[in-house]
Amino acid sequence: MATREPRGSRRRPDAAPPVVERIPPRSGLSRAEVIANQRRRIFEGLAAALAYHGYEDTKITDVVELAGLSRATFYEHFRGKEACFAAAYEDGVERLAAVVEAATGDRGDWSAQVSAGLGTGLGFLADDPPLAHLLLVESLAAARPARLEHERSLVRLAEALRPPDYVPGGEVVPEETLRLLAGGLASHVSGRVLAGEAEQLTEDHDLLLGFLLAPTLAADARAVAG
């Protein structure tokens, strides 16, 4: 009878499991701070386990070992892996959105806003490859609620790519085009992450910027020609 291969060897035989810092117990923390600390460690443990095992093969044992917490503590926060993933995904999306919005908020020129937001977002993902893997790869393999959240995130991204009214020519980029832009961007980035190239994402800034701005530039050109 063949011996079953370890879960990790089927996923990434060339890579050791990512290491999550195990924060030692600290005194003087409020209850709210303890809860926030535990949730953050669980999210980081989950992301590290997913990057090594994949969603289907990741077990609660993997998560708590990497988080440096007990199973009992995990279940104080989440009913199971699906609920934990959904919370980790939402947390990651909100953190990504926050840094992107902070980078684009005070820029008047549309192309400068897109460039700044894109660069900041790529940098955020490049700095945390396990989180990038969770958001862009494992969200497609997770349970149905998580996949639906991923689709909602693409809708949110498409809306963020909508040019403002003051774009020269005043032509609105069609909704379908915005969805294609969001899907194309997500597909490219997820491919890089899946290939183990998350840390090189910032190298794609100029390529992706040209892709995202192309419909607006085309609309401007048509307005000038017309």
Which SSEs are present, and which pair or pack?
Elements: H1 7-11, H2 31-53, H3 60-67, H4 71-77, H5 81-104, H6 110-126, H7 129-136, H8 144-160, H9 175-194, H10 205-225
Helix pairs in contact: 2-3, 2-5, 2-7, 5-6, 5-8, 6-10, 7-9, 8-9
Give a verbal description of the structure.
It is a single chain. This protein folds into two domains: 11-77, Homeodomain-like (Arc Repressor Mutant, subunit A); 81-225, Tetracycline Repressor, domain 2 (Orthogonal Bundle), CATH 1.10.357. The protein is 66% helix and 0% strand. It has helices at 7-11, 31-53, 60-67, 71-77, 81-104, 110-126, 129-136, 144-160, 175-194, 205-225. The N and C termini lie far apart (73 Å). The model is unreliable at 1-13 (pLDDT under 50).
